[in-house]
Amino acid sequence: MALKISYNFENIKGAANALKSGKLVAFPTETVYGLGSDATNSSAVARVYAVKGRPLGHPVIVHISSLSMVEFWAKAIPDYALKLAKLFWPGPMTLVLQRQHLAKNFITGGQDNIALRVPSHPIAIELLLEFEKQGGLGVAAPSANRFGKVSPTTASAVGIELDNYLEDSDIIIDGGLSQIGVESTIIDCTSATPFILRPGGITVDMIENTLDINFDNISTPSNRIKVPGMLASHYSPTAKVFLSGTPSPGDGLIAMATTPTPQGVIRLASPKDNSEFAHLLYESLRSADRQGLKKVFVVKPDNQGIGMAINDRLTKAESE
Ligand code: TXA
Ligand code: MG
């Protein structure tokens, strides 16, 4: 059972100190909640894997407070990556770069690259700054869910998911509902051209416009990174997710507000646009589980903006 704290300066200082002494701190980010540990502490990171039930060999994202911390973790950063970082950090974007010595195998899954992100949530930034003030260099943080499950977007979801596995001296910081609601865009920046490994809040259009490129004209790098985390099945609630077919009375439904609710069907969310869809998606899937629903039908949004990320996660949630 972890200690649950709300936001205030003393609490954040205490949480940073807990990280420094090898404890785990679950914290809010604008995408989803992360389960943080000192990225230089192998036993703290090993506990993150144990608490998540995550197989070893899955690399974790290291969170830093600003671009100036990148040099500790990465080298040979291409110009295009720097451009993306300057424009979209802090924000929902993770860059995969060539690693520095500091990024050990227990962080990178034995690969020669490292995933870095500067989150924009004010509590996350303050925690990272305070951690760095205490001598820390980065916080390794996967999403704060059990392996293969839905990422949490509230502190209470983290508690329900992980409390049985956390210790009394671990901490969960409450920062309300995550604003974006799906995980960051991951971009492989280890080749001459970028490659999107996971779609997210920073969209294909945003990247193409920034770099004046067209992904349709870029071939997949031959040495494209393969990570075990990109499994076909992931992000799954206990309820079975259906992306086609018609819900029956007692089934759950997530769809845009314009889609009516058939008689007896339990409406879990009615977002008005793709951003709100992302914001509400994981919490609605969790609410299906809380209500003990067996089936959830989801009418997929279009691929505009964050729609691509939503549909990527939904396809994985549906897959078994
Ligand atoms: O929005 C997010 O990215 C959230 C918040 C907490 O920052 N984090 C998150 O972490 O989603 P996680 O571990 O649940 O998903 C990270 C994904 C995994 O699929 C992992 O395999 C991949 O990123 N990844 C991590 N390091 C990598 C690396 N060096 N190269 C390629 N992929 C990597
Ligand atoms: Mg995850």
Describe what you observe in this structure.
It is a single chain. The protein is an alpha/beta fold. It has ten helices and 15 strands. The strands form two sheets. Strands 1, 2, 3, 4, 5, 6, 7, 8, 9, 10 and 11 form an eleven-stranded mixed beta sheet that branches. The protein has a four-stranded parallel beta sheet with strand order 12-15-13-14. Helix 1 (9-20) crosses helix 6. The protein is globular, with a radius of gyration of 19 Å. The model has no long low-confidence stretch (mean pLDDT 95). Threonylcarbamoyladenylate (TXA) binds at residues 29, 31-32, 34, 58-61, 94, 96, 108, 111, 113-115, 117, 119, 141-143, 183-184, 186, 197, 225, 227, 229-230.
Q: Total strand count, please?
A: 15
Structural classification: alpha/beta
Q: How much helix, percentage-wise, in residues?
A: 25-40%
- Tell me, rounded to a whole number, the average pLDDT: 95
Oligomeric state of shown chains: single chain
Largest beta sheet, briefly? Answer: 11 strands, mixed
Query: Regions with pLDDT < 50 over 5+ consecutive residues?
Result: none
First and last CA, distance: 31 Å
Q: Whole-number radius of gyration?
A: 19 Å
What coarse outline follows from CA principal-axis ratios?
globular
Quick tags:
single chain, 320 residues, alpha/beta, four-stranded parallel beta sheet, 10 helices, 17% strand, binds threonylcarbamoyladenylate, binds magnesium ion
Helix/strand layout:
Blueprint: E1 3-5, H1 9-20, E2 25-27, E3 34-38, H2 42-52, E4 61-63, H3 70-73, E5 74-75, H4 79-88, E6 93-99, H5 105-108, E7 113-117, H6 122-133, E8 139-140, H7 155-162, E9 171-173, E10 185-188, E11 195-198, H8 204-211, E12 240-242, E13 252-254, E14 266-269, H9 274-290, E15 295-298, H10 307-318
Parallel strand pairs: 1-9, 2-9, 4-7, 6-10, 12-15, 13-14, 13-15
Antiparallel strand pairs: 2-3, 3-8, 4-8, 5-6, 6-7, 10-11
Helix pairs in contact: 1-6
The structure holds threonylcarbamoyladenylate (TXA) and magnesium ion (MG).
